[in-house]
């Protein structure tokens, strides 16, 4: 989600008094420096953005995001009504599961990004604070009259983010299930100090963590309870912005707006596969065209040389030719170097491409870099205990020491259909990460298998010569393909754990 615009354009008119959130007095007592933002008074920092940023990366930070819009949609036919308004596939969304989606205009431009959760009696939706009133108006226009849209403006929303968030919150959360049993993009009802709470495992920092919806009148009590845990400090919106930038997460009004669509914004996963094929939502024609033909520009990450940061609006140059514009930029506390996001010509988006940023009359050298800039899905502590990883190409690798066993996922074999032949690599052959190593033939087609890490082939699964169907029946166990001696175990940090892979597949 994105909810930290800082432009004057994102503020309500100056003649309006800023609104007060339930934790206003709490922030002031904690030493929060308050600023007007999106029509509310909110803390931009407590002890300093750098310190708060690094604390969240290493421990857990509590953010007040109560300015965001919490909505509940219900009524006969609500599922079909939401699908007519959003490019989301609700047929595969299970109860208490969360999914990212987009609100688009009739031309396929992005009006907002949002989160949708299926509850037993309807759908819970969280929209951005800076756009919530427009979102509510747009949704009321798109939804039939017999669909009820309730703005849950009596509720507060807190976000607990960081590698130690689970340890801190599980200590005080009571429910029918353990808090740690929640996987990414799942939610459940708990109580915190006797206060009812809806908690989902989601967030906007790239770190593990939770979003917590509670009655506004109990916000201070719950915030005190969470911050009493030794892992937790209150963190303000300044650090939230630098954290989301390191995670490569777009910010509405900056990295996405009505001029951009899901494909050029790098948010194609927000348009579920069935919907992109069938259409039937606002802007579908443009979205389908962009999927089929590509777009003139794409959102990329940039790492800059030196210490000077690029800011929004800075020109991106290829030689002397202007090829794009920076949409978000700043200094990365984790990397100790400037980073930025920008839209550039599609031909210049390959990782490692050298570009130049023009900033206040100076030329800054920059290189296209993969996002997230700071991968955090696998923490250092979690990586030690973790043995199985997944790639975006649907390979899995089980690691023991420096030896990895590789196969294709159950999802992949299901997409391929009946496997008829497996062409395996030669033992001793050396490959780089992402190289095509094997080919799997099925009744549908042949598909390459890519190695998720660099290394040399140590062993192949000879049983597949006579029984290729093992890839179907035992895809993630006996149907493994090859074993590889890893050249660099650090490459594992760029892969997904099982929770994030499942969420990746759900969004396809």
Fraction of residues in H or I helices: 10-25%
**First-to-last CA distance:** 18 Å
**Main pleated-sheet profile:** 7 strands, mixed
Strand content: 25-35%
**What would you call the structural class?**
alpha+beta
Question: Average pLDDT, to the nearest integer?
Answer: 90
Neighbour order of strands in the largest sheet: 10-11-12-13-9-3-14
Q: Pick out the low-confidence regions.
A: 1-14, 377-386
Secondary structure: number of strands: 29
Put simply, the count of helices is 13
Could you explain how this protein is built, in words?
This protein has 508 residues and is an alpha+beta fold. 20% of the residues lie in helices and 34% in strands. Strands 10-11-12-13-9-3-14 form a 7-stranded mixed sheet, sandwiched between helices. The protein has a 6-stranded antiparallel β-barrel with strand order 15-18-17-16-19-20. Helix 2 packs across helix 7 (237-246). The chain is globular and about 70 Å long.
Please outline what is shown here.
With 508 residues, the protein is α+β, with helices and mostly antiparallel strands. The protein contains 13 helices and 29 strands.
